Amino acid sequence: MDCTVGLGGHAEAILGASPEVRVLGVDRDPQALELARDRLEPFGSRVRLVEADFADLPDVLERLGEGLATGVLADLGVSSLQLDSPERGFSFRRNGPLDMRMGNQGPTAADVVNTYSEEALRDIFWQYGDERQARRIARALARERENQPLETTGDLKRVVYRAKSSPGRSGRRPGRREGRVDPATRVFQALRIEVNRELSRLQTLLDEVVKLIDAEGRLVVISYHSLEDRLVKNSLRRLARGKIDEITGRTHSETRVLEVLTKKPVRPSAEEIAINPRSRSARLRAARRL
Ligand SMILES: C[S@@+](CC[C@H](N)C(=O)[O-])C[C@H]1O[C@@H](n2cnc3c(N)ncnc32)[C@H](O)[C@@H]1O
């Protein structure tokens, strides 16, 4: 089960490596699924593609009449297709509508910046983007939208740049420490996480997924920022430790459902980063279903 099949790169590699394997590919992006369908066509009936949120995987499997999986892969975050399509609104590098939805449903990034309270925006930038100037940027957005709603990635970028380059109360110019990173990076990341409810969906997947994997099956999760990786690390640890008796504080080892196979997350090599710079923040964690 590839729950983030995207453009089908991983699925293609898995299908090519093991002739007896079938892949159920899930993604919430219908545009990506179209491309994956073309790419995986040579594998015929060994591939099944479904548009769904991976948080709903148990229902999807039941609806399809599929049994337990021998392996589950989740390669989190956004795809190159999403990042490189200006009309999807994920990229601060190119102008486009302020959308950022991976699928077709729910509020867009424009809805978030134009309707959330200033305090809610500040918390999102701070918590999901680790943005030090969260308060200042939220204030600038609240002021800007009084004149005119923000509609494009360019509108948002302009407000963030302006907020970050105006001198603070101390007279110092903020944002120096960011070096070569674009000043809008953290705000864009934070909004994307909010729009797609990325952390709550991931937690639901992690809570449910062991029920969908057969004994000896593998769970592999690749994350791209520390908030995701922390959820993955903690969930795998909890499932590998087993339930704790509330009175005695002892763990019931018979309730362990996973063995963690990666003591430390696997990171890309320097050669891989040179070929594929977007892999640079990837951390892979894997576990075996007991
Ligand atoms: C990094 S890309 C995956 C790329 C893929 N492994 C490949 O080889 O092309 C992440 C994909 O996960 C999808 N995605 C993210 N969150 C999702 C969710 N909650 N449910 C389903 N798909 C999700 C995105 O739409 C995106 O296509």
Overview of the molecule:
It is globular, with a radius of gyration of 21 Å. The chain has helices spanning 9-17, 30-40, 57-64, 80-84, 109-115, 118-129, 134-147, 153-165, 185-195, 198-208, 226-241, 270-275, and strands spanning 23-27, 47-51, 69-75, 213-223, 243-244, 251-252, 258-260, 283-289. With 290 residues, it is an alpha/beta fold. The strands form three sheets. Strands 3-4-8-7 form a four-stranded mixed beta sheet, with helices on one face. The site of S-adenosylmethionine has 20 residues, from helix 1 and strand 1.
Tally of extended strands? 8
Spatial shape: globular
Please provide the ordered H/E string of secondary-structure elements: HEHEHEHHHHHHHEHEEEHE
Beta percentage is: 5-15%
SS class: alpha/beta
Supply Rg. Answer: 21 Å
Main beta sheet: strand number and arrangement? Answer: 4 strands, mixed
Report the uncertain regions.
Answer: none
